[in-house]
Amino acid sequence: MPLQDVCFLDVQGSMLSKGDKRKWSETEETECTPTEFIQQWSPGLKPPRSMCKGKENDCNHFVISRRSRKRKESLSGISWNNLPEELILRILLFLPLRDLLRTAVICKRWHRLAFDESLWQSVDLEGKTNMGLALQQVLKTGVRRLRCPRSFIDNLHVTDTCTLQLAELDLSSCIVSTSTLESLLSRCHLLECLSLEGLQLSDTIISDLAKNPRLLQLNLSGCSDFSANPLAHMLQSCSRIEQLNISWCSFDNNHVKSVVNHVTPSVTQLNLSGYRDSLTLDDLKVLVSRCPGILTLDLSDSTQLMADCFPVLSELDHLTHLSLSRCYHIHIAALTNLRKTFPALHYLDVFGLLNDSHLPSLRKENPGVCLNSWPFSAVARPTPASVSDGAGGAHGMWSRRSRLRFK
User: Less CB within 10 Å around the terminal CB: N or C of the chain?
Assistant: First the structure.
């Protein structure tokens, strides 16, 4: 075989065809260096970048080869995945409830952050229906302030035996079964403010309330179906109560005596209204001697009280608000010069005892006393009926708004 017909091998070991022989010859004629030859036949490489530096090297070109490097993060934005969780929680703290729940479905990490305990400290579920499952989820987050008055709570199964973190709870006028309420309150030992207004209770619930030694405000107005003995035990155990609203309950004489004989001496605001024939002057004497620091006292609708109750009430040196509305056996003449009997008195409510035409003359006889300013009692109520705005507003709870509110 002639030497011209032999196939040539390139530098990389591949065979060159006869047609490429001319290219090899031409290349050989130009005296290509091995480096230039490799660059010419290597597939897919970018053309070399030639640079000429200075006038001395105008005719001497050299090649700059760069090592491949990873693409850096764009400076125009920061990835959420690189943010610390503390910063993400701080951002989520500004989201309303609906948006916070939407972030929980993004990924597993966001679901965990969205239900972090720090974001669910106060929740407002006022007026919601069929909220058993939702309430069960909220309780798992470690909520401390829960407001859900006038709600319908069903299918609530609190299976966890751990103590709930609730410190403030408003269940006023809810539709909830007694068994569900027992299951919920049996796990509450850290309560400070509680409102069960208008609910049907039981002796078990009252006994469970006795396990909350931090209780400061308790609203049991309009409650029913519990005995006098558990009530007495609960009042003895909760010795730090400052505001107690126990008006218009289904009480008899034994219930009233349990209250006046066992209420804590530290109470400063007490609503004991609505017991027409059950509250007597003797009960009032026991109450005044036991709790001399009362500032607000509501004895409305106590028809057994007469004008001889004023010498007993005068022993309350710090009394600032007295309600005797619809105490029909108290004559209007006994209301004159009450400023002398109660030097610290600022508010006097006597709805139903006198006509509006007598109010100007009564104001003159009691300078500095506001008459009939509070048609509804605000003692221990989370949202007083007379409050429409302010620190808590109409949707607040004990003078503070809830951060997460389901609108």
Answer: N
Placement of tokens 């011209």 in the chain: 4
- Closest alpha carbon to 80 in 116, 113, 117, 119: 113
* Cβ contact 185:207 at 8 Å: no
CA distance 77 to 83: 12
Contacts of 116 (CB under 8 A, 6+ apart): 89, 92, 141
Q: Are 103 and 95 in contact (CB under 8 A)?
A: yes
| Residue 53 in tokens | 């530096």
d(C-alpha 238, C-alpha 240), whole Å: 6
Which region holds residue 399: left if phi is over 0, alpha if psi is between -120 and 50, else beta?
A: left
Handedness of CA 191, 192, 193, 199 (dihedral sign): positive
Here the tokens at position 125 are 């579920």
pTM of the model: 0.77
User: Distance between CA atoms of 288 and 281, rounded to whole angstroms?
Assistant: 11
Q: Please, which pLDDT band fits residue 63 given cuts at 50, 70 and 90?
A: low
Question: What is the Cα–Cα distance from 266 to 257, expressed in whole angstroms?
Answer: 18
Q: Which residue has the tokens 């569900």?
A: 180
